[in-house]
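User: Teach me something about this protein's shape.
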Amino acid sequence: MESNLDRQNIIDGIVEHPGVIVIIGDTDTGKTTLARQLIERGVEAGLSTAIVDADTGQSEIGPPGAISMATIDRLPESFKALRPRRMYFTGSTTPVGHMLPTVVGTGRMVDEAAARSADLIVVDTSGLVKGSIGRDLKLYKIDLISPLYIVGLAKSRELDPILSVLSRIDKYNVYKLPVSSEVRTKQKEFRTARRQAQFHEYFQNSNRHFIRLDDIVCANTYFTMGRPVKWQHFRILEKDLKARVLHAEVVDKGMYIVADRRPAASGVEALMKRYGTRDFTVVCGSDFTNLLVGLADANNNIINLGIIEAIDFKQRHIAVITPATTVTPVRIVQFGYMQVRPDGVELGKIKL
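Assistant: First, the predicted structure itself:
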């Protein structure tokens, strides 16, 4: 692990022998600034350059809740001027609890950049580096990507549990740099306000579209995964739940039920006793409102993000707010794990 080289020497060496580079570091360590410096040097050197923004909470490219990839032919005024060429939807602004899609999504976006013949691929990551979750997230991500270079920006020794492992692996060129004195700490309130502004900007020119449930399948949820429960059974379900059933389907050995209000625990227990199974998921119809979703095509590539406005279970369609001009190619609606209004205000986490 090299720690005695200065930043400019490292950048020059990477540009001279380009490949995939992963930048890791705690929050407010200057990862994005280093990524910009690498990209500027790569473009100046005539390299085909790409960036993968894997910081879903404080993204520079594309909306929060997604990992974005952009190719760069000429120097942009800022990363915000870049348009994502491809996105991978994670549905959350934190990798905590969503490590698998974060790791897979980062790998997918690096593959997309390589498929576009990028010589230099810069991967900017989140600030989650501490504890077993931060360590495992970075090690699994790097193992999947297999980068040529890893640069750690360290305030002290917080990266040692990660870099000490990576420095023992011969195929990696590992560098550790101190954090620049010019880096400023951003408060939590600033980060929240910044995400709100990014969501608002992304959805400000959106339109309402209707997607037929019969034309799509929903992912990250049991909804639309099973076979419909016959309407004759609704009365039995409603008697136990003491709520009107909007939708019900058989999933494996249980049921996925949408009710017009949140039922009491005793109602769900009554269903378990009646049907002899504990595999019941009961959600409230209003839980779908303002749910952040990814709209994917038949190849499971994200076309755009969207916000569910409402689901009409009787007419079997979803009203979704999205900047997409058409939803005709949509075949998969990937459910996220948070609710957000079109003006960018986050309403909280949810799992459907």
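Now, about its shape. The chain has eight helices and 18 strands. Helices lie at 7-16, 31-44, 99-115, 131-145, 160-166, 188-203, 234-241, 265-275. If you'd like, I can walk through any region in more detail.
User: That's plenty for now, thanks!
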